[in-house]
Write a structure and sequence with these properties.
The chain has 10 helices and 2 strands. It is mainly alpha-helical and about 250 residues long. Pfam families: MnhB (PF04039).
């Protein structure tokens, strides 16, 4: 196939996609109207499965397979950062020198750390009941741990951040999501189908598989963000060249 023919194929494909996009937009309900077919269906499905938070019902039930893809993007990003930013044999990693922290900053950060951690865990645990969920709560949990870096120093953060455990937790969160989907297959449902009892509406045990998938996302996001930030923070390194490499450059 010549370059000119390829350009024609690309142009025709782009034109076809544009036409379909315009036709889809013309079929949308008018802005500000009282007709919301997609939203009405999502709310009905959420209430039928005893999930108070419709957004969580959409994310972890009605389109749980799409959420698996989103989670896998973060997991792949963390894995790529770990591989690309790993320490090589030519790098001599130096411990950063502690910097003076203003007393007011120290007090505020140490006070905010447990509060932020508790809020993050609350957001994850109540993901099927109130706004938020595993994605948002996981980021808040990871952020709370790094307040120790602001309040004290990097060494204090390292003491509560064993990277090996967080890397295992990152993989475990990803695997747990897939295993819940596989359990649905064993129960005779579709992959990631909501096969568990729906429980009592507006309680922590409601929503069937929604709280399980939400918790798996929370673990994966929290651990993944911690590992990702650790790899970037650890880039305060000094590359020590060997005598042979120095001679070669000379």
């Amino acid at each position: 196939m010549t370059m000119r023919l390829r350009m024609w194929v690309l142009a025709l494909g782009g034109l076809g996609a544009a036409v379909l996009y315009v036709l889809a937009c013309l079929g949308l309900p008018s802005f500000g109207g009282d007709r919301h077919p997609s939203g009405d269906r999502a709310v009905r499905a959420a209430l039928a499965r005893h999930t108070a938070n419709t957004v969580s019902s959409v994310n972890f039930d009605q389109r749980a397979l799409d959420t698996l893809g989103e989670e896998s993007i973060l997991f792949g990003s963390v894995l790529g950062a770990v591989v690309l930013l790993r320490q090589t044999r030519d790098e001599d990693r130096q411990q950063p020198e502690p910097a003076r922290v203003a007393p007011s900053v120290r007090r505020y950060a140490l006070f905010a750390l447990p509060v932020t951690l508790l809020i993050g865990l609350y957001i994850v645990a109540h993901g099927q009941l109130s706004p938020g969920g595993g994605f948002q709560g996981g980021v808040v949990v990871a952020t709370s741990l790094h307040l120790l870096y602001i309040a004290v120093d990097y060494r204090a953060l390292e003491r509560i951040r064993p990277l090996g455990l967080y890397e295992v937790a990152d993989a475990a969160g990803e695997a747990a999501y897939v295993l819940v989907g596989a359990a649905a297959l064993l129960a005779g449902w579709a992959f990631l189908g909501n096969f568990l009892p729906y429980g009592t509406f507006n309680t922590l045990s409601s929503g069937g598989t929604v709280p399980l998938l939400n918790a798996a996302i929370g673990v994966e996001v929290a651990a993944g963000v911690v590992v990702l930030l650790a790899r970037f923070l650890d880039q305060a390194v000094e590359i020590a060249s060997t005598d042979e490499e120095a001679e070669d450059r000379a």
